[in-house]
Amino acid sequence: MLSPAYKLTVGRKVIDTTDEPQASTVVDLSVRLDLDTPMDNCKLVLGNVGGLKPATGDEAKVELGYADDGGLTQVIAGTVVTTEPDLTTTRVLIDGGSAALLRTFVEQTFEGKTAGQIVRDLAGRAGAGVAVADDGIKFPAYVVDGRRSAYQHMHDLAALSGFDLYVNADGEVVFEEFVGGKTVHVFEFAKHIVGLEVTRTTPRAGAVEAWGESPTGSEGDDASAWLTRDFTRSRGRSGQGAVLLLERPALRTTAAARTAAAAALTNIRRRTLRGRLLSTGRPQVKLGDAIQLRGMADGSLNTSFQVRSVEHRLTKLGGFTTAVGFRAIDVGV
Q1: pLDDT digit string (tens) for 68-124?
Q2: Domain that residue 249 falls in
Q3: Helices 254-270 & 150-161, crossing angle to 10 degrees?
Q4: Distance from C-alpha of 144 to C-alpha of 104, rounded to nearest angstrom
Q5: Do 161 and 77 fall into the same domain?
Q6: Alpha helices in the chain (DSSP H)
Q7: How far is CA 319 from CA 5, 28, 77, 149, 281, in A?
Q8: CA of 240: how far to CAs of 134, 205, 268, in Å?
Q9: Which residues are registered as beta bridge partners of 13?
């Protein structure tokens, strides 16, 4: 039988239960990661024993796994933001890398830059590292205003380009297209899956039509931008059927409008099948990965899905579990 274990590094203090599985000071540990919400964080309830006294501002990282199964996997890196001690325990909140992006506000107009270049610039201003920032759409002009955080602007750029935006286990920004998953994790019915919920919905539209606020697409990418009432020659469209209209001022070229329309339609189609499964602890499952279900009674579920959220939880009473939120990858036309 596998013994759940963890390695908790806070400041210069390290607690590693792979060496002493019974010497745990953690009463409750939960790590939450999400592609749709900037909520990467770790919540700890620590027994007031063992000398671990986290302080606000301490750097921290969490590794999870099993003491007798070949090592641990880092699941989050961040900073201690709150500590709440009481008589017997201390509650600790560790924020991941998205917190810095949410606290950063910038006013800047970018000219002739790709979405990836803008993301790198905003991450740098927030003091965040960047693991991957692919190009995406090239914008003749893109305005970042101070009314919204750097994260919110980066999220918009991801949506327009058809990319994912998240912070990885090392606290670095990832901005790239999902193309099947960095790793595919297999979950079999009656073997790995403790619980499963699936929701199916009809698509809100069969086609998307996108445009911006100027006709530079019809005049050339290097032309000056100006407001117009005629978007006929500079709009983009994807799909067939009922149309969802997508107006974004930054879509000032035909190529950008077409990319944004295709990205929006893919998102609509993939959201028609979403679910959440609960499994025994799987710290290897990360944002950017995919899962494959096997042995399901509903044959349509025996396929691969994109990981959209991950929640790891380790408690003395409940053991080690992982909940994975997922959605469809393969979608029909």
Answers
A1: 766 899 999 999 999 999 988 999 999 999 999 999 999 999 999 999 999 999 999
A2: 207-270
A3: 90
A4: 12
A5: no
A6: 98-102, 115-126, 150-161, 216-219, 254-270
A7: 10, 10, 22, 37, 8
A8: 29, 9, 13
A9: 10
